[in-house]
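In response to the reviewer comment on reproducibility (Comment 2.3), we provide here a single inverse folding case reported in full, input and output, so that an independent group could reproduce the run without further information from us. The structure tokens appear first.
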């Protein structure tokens, strides 16, 4: 898996599977911004159809993703995303992304 953290505009942290080089400091795609504006966690797989690009200008190839919005004081401030190149996301992956987003949102409130 690859883990990403982004603010509203740019991917600020990336870990796993050479993600740092490819994704770090790239703008979040308009498609992902639209998903984030729903303010709900989204789980995507190739089986659902074409997957949106995670960021502008990168050719990432992934099979499944979980995208969780980071909310602070009711405002959308970013996202946590877990991405898999080969396998579907599990319920554990979904809960992990959601927990990380909630933690980061609460830390920004303090």
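Designed residues, in position order:
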């Amino acid at each position: 898996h690859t883990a990403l953290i982004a603010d509203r505009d740019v991917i600020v942290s990336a870990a796993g599977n050479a993600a740092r080089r490819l994704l770090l400091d790239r703008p979040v795609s308009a498609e992902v911004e639209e998903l984030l504006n729903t303010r709900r966690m989204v789980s995507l797989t190739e089986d659902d159809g074409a997957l949106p690009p995670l960021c502008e200008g990168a050719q990432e190839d992934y099979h499944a993703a979980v995208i969780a919005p980071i909310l602070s004081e009711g405002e959308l401030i970013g996202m946590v995303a877990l991405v898999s190149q080969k396998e579907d996301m599990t319920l554990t992956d979904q809960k992990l992304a959601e927990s990380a987003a909630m933690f980061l949102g609460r830390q920004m409130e303090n």
